[in-house]
Amino acid sequence: MSAEATTTYPTSQELRQAFGLAEAGREIFDPATGELVGFVPAVTEADVDAAVETARAAQKSWAALPLAERQAYMLKAADAIEERAEELAVLLSREQGKPLNGPNARFEVGACSAWLRATASFELEPEVLFDDESGRAELHYRPLGVVGAIGPWNWPMMIGIWQIAPSLRMGNTVIVKPSGYTALCVTAMINVMNEVLPAGVLQIVAGDRVVGNAMTTHEGIDKIMFTGSTPAGKAIVKAAADTLKRTTMELGGNDAGIVLDDADPAAIAADLFWGAFINTGQTCAALKRLYVPESIYEQVCEELVKVAQASPMGVGLSEENVLGPLQNKAQFTIVKDLVQAAKDSGARVLIGGEAPSEDAVGFFYPTTLIADIDNDNPLVTEEQFGPALPIIKYTDLEQAIEWANALEVGLGSSVWSSNRERALEVAARLEAGTTWINKHGAIDPRMPFGGAKQSGFGLEFGVEGLKHLGQPHVINF
Q1: pTM for the full predicted model
Q2: What are phi and psi of 4, to 5 degrees?
Q3: Are residues 154 and 41 in the same domain?
Q4: Are residues 112 and 237 in the same domain?
């Protein structure tokens, strides 16, 4: 592991000053080094009330703007993020832990500006339902009002934009509550955007669960968008029920990948690895359990080990690293315990699997591949959300499909094959919001994204995602 950065970057103090962040409050520490990054000021329910009042006052004039003007504001916000991209990436790396390079901090900040531009470009025209001798009916989508956006700590800025961009595009105003683990980078991004957006259109309340509950129960908030765990999502849905808020829930997953016996292990290994280990495995729609046929099982294992060995892990500000620490101690403990349970069961460790000593700096857990593991092992059945992948051997494809579909979650899934028709046949039988073929976790702003079963409901992205941030309004004349 790299012990320190080899390039000079802005200090945490300089970043706090550059982005107008607080100089007192709850302390945030770098999960890779333990160094102080910044402070999150205390936020109360009264602050939520004030934010809602401001948002409701700003919403009518924001919605009244011609669409072209709202789109122009979004493009200006994208430009503003792009102009500060390197500073934002450094802050993100320090606070979340992810490296600057690879599909990590610089990638995430770049995705924020790209997603704003893409979402601004989507057209949502009135839909003609019928037009005949009986009359004409059109389906329009009007703004909902105020959207409460509650985000996670794994992709804090990018997922924040996933919630913010379509809300603004549809004429809503937005109040963001970031995860308490990663409030600084989201606050910085919103401060940058607010340099060009009209006042009151986008606000942030960086509080705890009490603040989150105040948002989900507030009569002045019309919709909640949430990305996070399934238990937290269930609690939000219950809390929102009394006001009949609209909700979009993007919840936990335990994505299965099925390799077919005609796949080329060497050809798919890198994509398999990054499907599982993007953001050091801390991604809702990452590949978290891999089913491989006995005929090519050892070859797939060997090729994955090669990729793992060539993917350095360490402090995010060291340019060579592409894997980083777990973001927090609680998640580190989950990964450590699940891997230990797999080892105790007799599963074979291909690489990694040894937790660092208690006095080690940072929440680093080594890249871990586990073979010869039973399908009912906790590392398979529970979402690990970290750098540990169980590889389950199968002899019958029907059994692999049954195993893949057996869990209560269904965010994503994937099929790996050199035969597209075979892959499509298997993909059609998997229970998930998205199934990828020969890739995993590839998202696109034009492609709707959402979960099946207890991985949530509602859609994000694309024109379909816009519809979920509007009130359907039928006009019959």
Answers
A1: 0.96
A2: -155, 160
A3: yes
A4: yes
Which residues span the domain enclosing 70? 12-251+455-476
Residues 21 and 85 in one domain: yes
In a domain, 138, yes or no: yes
Q: What is the CATH number for 400?
A: 3.40.309.10
Question: Virtual CA dihedral for 89, 185, 65, 171, nearest 10 degrees?
Answer: 110
Q: 403 and 285: one domain? A: yes
What is the number of structural domains in the chain? 2
Quick check: is 77 in a domain? yes
Is residue 4 situated within a structural domain? no
- Long-range contacts formed by 49-53: CB under 8 A, 24+ apart: 49/214, 49/218, 51/175, 51/203, 51/205, 52/146, 52/175, 52/218, 52/220, 52/221, 53/220
Per the rule left: phi > 0, alpha: psi between -120 and 50, beta: everything else, 175 is beta
Residue 286 and residue 214 in one domain: no
Regarding whether 238 and 154 lie in a shared domain, the answer is yes
Residues of the chain with pLDDT under 70: 1-6
Q: State the distance between the two ends of the chain, measured CA to CA, in whole angstroms.
A: 68
What confidence score (pLDDT) does residue 4 get?
Answer: 47
Nearest C-alpha neighbor of 224 from the set 158, 115, 151 = 151
Asked if residue 3 belongs to a domain, the reply is no
Instruction: Map tokens 């309340």 to a residue.
Output: 205
Q: Which residues are catalytic?
A: 250
pLDDT of residue 3: 44
pLDDT at 387: 98
